[in-house]
């Protein structure tokens, strides 16, 4: 999903560059390229409107380019905001996951120690049973002391093991609850992303449509100017400007003055 938003953001920026280049080319074309500059009267005025409107259309595309860049920036800001929120959740999950793994290791160590203490106690009991009538009272006393120490160590290790098991279960429940909350957050964030992406595309299409409407309005002004063209008036204007007089020229020579 994040990749798709980035791709659309890049698309908007590239589309903005296309619109900007096209707008600049139209403006330069309108300003620098001659187009019927020797025409007269109504057609000349229509051509002036034509060039003005072409330049205006170029400006429309330039403005569209600016709007697209602004929308791309909004998409970038949206991605950054979601990334920041997602990072906070990920840090919480990483911390509790590490804590869970650490407690799991401590519990395994406590279990191994407990199992070892069980073996130590069993060995001490067996030593006492085997020593009956075979050792001196002093040696017997030492074996009982060792057995008592083994039992005490077993009880300590048992408590430690149980405490670690309880701590692990508590952390597991906490991890599970945080995992559920994280999943709910990511689901909510994805819904937000899809909705934002959809609305961004909708706005993009509306901007393109608005640009087409503005362009068509300019073309309509050109059509109106062309409707005002009068071929007859333009011909009369040309004749008025170029005429050399109101009467045709006289004869170059009078035949009556020619003598054989």
Automatic annotation (TrEMBL):
One of its GO terms (molecular function) is actin filament binding. The keyword Ribonucleoprotein does not apply. Keywords: Coiled coil. Residues 1-234 form the F-BAR domain. One of its GO terms (cellular component) is cytoplasm. PROSITE patterns: F_BAR. The keyword Coiled coil applies. Pfam families: FCH. This is Proline-serine-threonine phosphatase interacting protein 2. It comes from Naja naja. The lineage of its organism: Eukaryota, Metazoa, Chordata, Craniata, Vertebrata.
